[in-house]
Design a protein that fits this description.
Blueprint (H helix, E strand, L loop, with lengths): L7 E6 L10 H20 L3 E8 L4 H10 L3 H19 L5 E4 L3 H16 L4 E10 L4 E2 L5 E4 L8 E2 L16 E5 L7 E10 L5 H10 L6 H11 L6 E2 L1 E2 L16 E2 L1 H19 L1 H4 L2 H5 L4 E6 L5 H15 L14 E3 L2 E2 L10 H7 L4 H10 L7 E3 L1 H31 L11 H10 L2 H10 L3 H22 L1 H4 L4 H21 L5 H10 L34 H25 L12 H5 L3 E11 L7 E6 L6 E5 L7 H4 L3 E5 L5 E3 L2 E3 L2 E2 L1 E3 L5 E3 L11 E2 L1
Helix pairs in contact: 2-3, 4-7, 5-6, 6-10, 7-10, 12-13, 13-16, 13-18, 14-16, 14-18, 15-16, 16-18, 18-19
Catalytic activity: tRNA(Met) + L-methionine + ATP = L-methionyl-tRNA(Met) + AMP + diphosphate
EC number: 6.1.1.10
InterPro entries: aa-tRNA-synth_I_CS (IPR001412), Anticodon_Met (IPR041872), Met-tRNA-synth_bsu_C (IPR004495), Met-tRNA_ligase_1 (IPR023458), Met-tRNA_synth (IPR014758), Methionyl/Leucyl_tRNA_Synth (IPR015413), MetRS_core (IPR033911), MetRS_Zn (IPR029038)
Length: 691
Amino acid sequence: MEEKKFKRTTVTAALPYANGGVHIGHLAGVYVPSDIYVRYLRLKKEDVVFIGGSDEHGVPITIRAKKEGITPQDVCDRYHKIIKDSFREFGISFDVYSRTTSKIHHQFASDFFSKLYKDGKLVEQESEQYYDPEAHQFLADRYIMGTCPHCGNPNAYGDQCEKCGSDLSPMELINPHSTISGAKPEVRKTKNWYLPLNEYQGWLKEWILNGHKEWRSNVYGQCKSWLDMDLQPRAMTRDLDWGIPVPVEGAEGKVLYVWFDAPIGYISNTKELCDADPERWGSWQKWWQDPETRLVHFIGKDNIVFHCLIFPTMLKAHGDYILPDNVPANEFLNLENDKISTSRNWAVWLDEYLVDFPGKQDVLRYVLTANAPETKDNNFTWRDFQERNNSELVAIYGNFVNRALQLTKKYWNGVVPECGELLEVDKHAIDEFKDVKEKVEQYLDNFKFREAQKEAMNLARIGNKYITECEPWKVWKTDPKRVETILYISLQLVANLAIAFEPFLPFSSKSLREMIDMPEFDWAQLGRTDLLKPGHQLAEPHLLFQKIEDEEIQKQLDKLAATKEANEKAEAAKSYKAEPVKANVPFDDFEKLDIRVGHIKDCQKVKKSNKLLQFTIDDGSGTDRTILSGIAKFYDPADLIGKDVLFVANFAPRKMMGIESQGMILSAVDADGSLHVTTTLDQVKPGSQVG
């Protein structure tokens, strides 16, 4: 089939939920590859628009709002700013980054739904859903919890069990309850409007399975598995109070389904951009309704069905829109061999990375591209991050650039020398990189960003090999003219690197172009050997990349370890059940214990013991009492000084670590095994008895 030529390209990146920040899984799956692609098209002087924005409707927003006791709009405002600022600082070069709570979007999505409704493209259906009789509302899947029928997890959600990963429906849960009120939900009938996917199944099969065999195998395969089944009508409205009201009479208390309104956000955000600067961008219709425009969606694999089946069906039903030409969805990125999870805080958050590693945006961009989960799930580890920075960016790319520029500064005061007679080694080096443009383009055009970046890095490998073989620092002593040629070729390679890495590492490419004073450049120049003319003055060289030390990585590993420990404690607390009460004892036995209040005057760690703390207790007798307690793991001694605690006063003294302990401080054992000393609510005189 002959490849269709387009006049322009509309590129969209999945809209992140504004209920939290952006993490490395989002970056690797969607935003880094889409940014690489758009930067590449711009370098080729192609007409392209890059659309992003925050998805601000749906249940995750309302759940966080209820949890924090604020409004859904408060949640959206906070995270929209965090996400937008992080993207900008990280170099994700959107032409517009708007939001689905904007007035433009509300009107646009409402009008889109109205047209489908008036044209008879939607069907009304009644269905049975869970209803909270105490909160007086229908429950979205995430507002229902119960026991997973597959693994027995008592805290499974109505749409998924996060413990075993099974997809669920609320009706499958055992002993379901509302997370809003805790009440047992009732099954009630409700009316909603559905998109009849079943009526478009034949068209979808022809359009995708026959018309887009070039799509990535994971995308094509997932579409095929759905299309091999009987598609069912899909609800486009929900019984919620947060979202865009359904513009139909009798639809009070219902909003547009978030997966109906969110992809329309691509279009409304484009309209917002074009309305603000029509001279630069023209009309929004040219980007969404002109058959000579190519539409490309960048998404993660969990969004394939929505972008390849549901949204195209919406566009087809409307009738005025182009359809996606490609949907290069990535698989998932794991973190330290564990699934990234927002709810468990098991993630590397972009806004935190930008604080912890200032000026190192390109390092993360490089590592995420090198580990891009393009065909299967991949893994991010902090040690690999460090290794790739130190052994590739620093030792290969940065090392070659620094050698070439420093030698030019040393021998010619930073002036590009003349190129003399070419020897075989020179011709071989030139021959090795002359087709770099063709190779990188071939990979980028086919959305193989990992391989494209490898080809760019190969330029630096060629340069290092060439300069090592030629040894200009030795040749200088006997043949300075020969060194001119060696450095001339080396500098041309440096200039090529600045262009080749521009889509991948925009910050370091800008820094490199400043060092070689090359403000003007374009993609068509890649592979040439005359980018820097003889006599051209270079600027002062500096290191392009910095080594990352073990201490910086350990901080990140410690942060993840603390997260893991917190998750384990939370999990233990969820499943905690108190131990059975021991057998009854006579009250007289209890009265034999002399439990008293003691005031902690001093507390120190016991030398050579990881477990024991030594307390100096005022027990009201006028003579201080020494008590040892095995709680060193759970308390800083300084935090306990001045507290009142309960202790058993009439145990026989016992020696531990050579110190006599005169009693036992009472502690409670929590669900996670941690110990907590017992105290009094109010200040009580030392020596007061408990009973």
